[in-house]
Design a protein that fits this description.
This protein is of the alpha/beta class. The chain has two domains: about 5-50 and about 180-395, Aminopeptidase (3-Layer(aba) Sandwich); about 55-180, no CATH class. The protein has helices at about 5-10, 20-35, 140-145, 160-165, 215-235, 255-265, 295-310, 330-335, 370-385; strands spanning about 40-60, 65, 70, 85-95, 105-110, 125-130, 155, 170-190, 195-205, 240-250, 270-280, 340-345. Strands 1, 2, 3, 4, 5, 6, 7, 8, 9, 10, 11 and 12 form a twelve-stranded mixed sheet that branches. Helix 1 packs across helix 9. It starts with a helix and ends in a 15-residue tail after the last helix. It binds zinc ion. The site of zinc ion (ZN) has 7 residues, from helix 5. Zinc ion binds near residues 220 and 280.
Length: about 400
């Protein structure tokens, strides 16, 4: 296995890949191209999703009106409450020194953006509008701005910076209006057919989309890149069962990609016998990668065998972690359909804090090559070993019909 290949691929994915954006499409393109290099064709599977988009988003000051670039699409309002779809704040434009807590009904301007962060590329300043009464979207804004409460935020073009600074204290208006629509989203899929039991499919998935405001190097460019490496490995070592690799969209948005995928497979002749979720877990502040438990004793036994086959560096341990798989990633859709699922790496009780979850600091330089190597070895050992095992039909119900 090649951890350096994974790091290189993560570096090529070093841009925001928020669901439904050009960045996500570009990310899929990078993966598709990487797969093609060693002869694996991938295809897209589309689905339609309810969506909110900006009808208008602007900022007015001294009789002039400028477009703004909101940090987050209002469609992300789902998981966080209380939220407001629309923002409208009129009040004084306040000095950066008012940060991190601009007064209610004011708009703060922050000019010291990190120019190297791809998320803020092309912007010179960030506006925070403190809307009375209603909080708005996404705690990551707190990290971006050091703010104590979520609030609407947007970037502005570089040529406006001087104008803003010259007009501090004047009354301004920050607003955006959203509208309902539908959007076509898509997952990227590749398959290596099994030589003996091609109709039994082991799915391995990682989400392509990054959390808004981040490049998501660990979460989850690292998973996307590891999937490419697994696909390469199984191309060279043909499996007995079919191996299907899926780069999901919209994990960060209610896990819509995996939900749609599982729903679309209902009634398929091919049976998905196992799902392996690859999501993060390889940055410097993560513990040694391990496999999350599968709710199936049989798979646990295989897990133990796999662990025994992997060399463990001195002073570090690989362990299984029995845990209730939570519903925070793409495994949930498979589990809900009665398909056994495991996490690589596992999380649950042993998840470490401070691993830059959903923060702008989740960048390539935080990745731990030893963790990536362990994750690749463990994943390959498990996936290879499970080919030999009968997965009890009684344990596998398949997707709902
Ligand atoms: Zn993730």
């Amino acid at each position: 296995m090649r951890p350096e290949f994974v790091v290189d691929l993560v570096t090529r994915l070093d841009f925001p890949r928020v669901v439904g954006t050009d960045g996500e499409e570009r990310g899929f393109g990078v993966v598709k191209q990487a797969l093609a290099v060693f002869g694996v064709d991938a295809w897209f599977e589309e689905f339609s999703s309810p969506w909110l988009e900006f009808a208008e988003a602007d900022f007015s000051l001294e009789g002039e009106c400028f477009p703004i670039r909101p940090l987050v699409n209002p469609v992300f309002d789902g998981p966080w409450t209380p939220v407001a779809r629309d923002a409208d704040v009129e009040g004084p434009l306040t000095e950066p020194t008012d940060m991190p807590h601009p007064a209610e009904g004011s708009v703060a301007v922050r000019t010291e953006l990190d120019r190297k962060n791809p998320c803020t590329a092309g912007a010179s300043a960030q506006l925070f509008a403190c809307q009375p009464e209603q909080g708005f979207v996404a705690y990551y804004l707190a990290a971006v701005g050091g703010l104590g409460r979520p609030m609407p935020s947007a970037y502005i073009d570089p040529h406006l910076e001087k104008f803003l600074v010259a007009n501090l204290g004047r009354t301004c208006r920050f607003r955006w209006v959203s509208r309902d629509c539908t959007k076509t989203l898509r997952n990227l899929v590749a398959e290596i057919r099994g030589s003996q039991r091609p109709d039994e499919v082991i799915c391995v998935g990682a989400h392509m989309d990054s959390f808004p405001g981040t490049v998501g190097a660990n979460d989850n460019a690292s998973g996307c890149a590891r999937l490419v490496e697994f696909a390469r490995w199984f191309k060279e070592h043909p499996p007995l069962r079919s191996m299907r690799f899926i780069w999901f969209t919209a994990e960060e948005l209610d896990r819509r990609g995996s939900q749609a995928y599982v729903q679309a497979r209902a009634g398929d002749a091919d049976k998905i016998v196992l799902y392996v979720n690859v999501d993060g877990g390889v940055s410097v502040d993560h513990e040694w990668p391990h496999l999350g438990e599968a709710h199936r004793e049989q798979i646990n036994a295989i897990t133990e065998e796999s662990l025994a086959s992997v060399c463990v560096p001195e002073g570090r341990g690989i362990f299984t972690q029995p845990e209730e798989l939570d519903s925070t990633s793409d495994a949930a859709a498979f589990q809900d359909a009665g398909i056994p699922a495991i996490f690589l790496p596992g999380g649950g009780k042993r998840k470490t804090p401070g691993a830059h979850p959903h923060l702008p600091t989740d960048t390539v330089d935080k990745l731990d090559v030893a963790n990536i190597q362990a994750s690749l070895l463990l994943g390959t050992a498990f996936l290879d070993r499970i080919q030999q095992h009968r997965i009890a039909a009684a344990d596998v119900q398949g997707p709902p019909t």
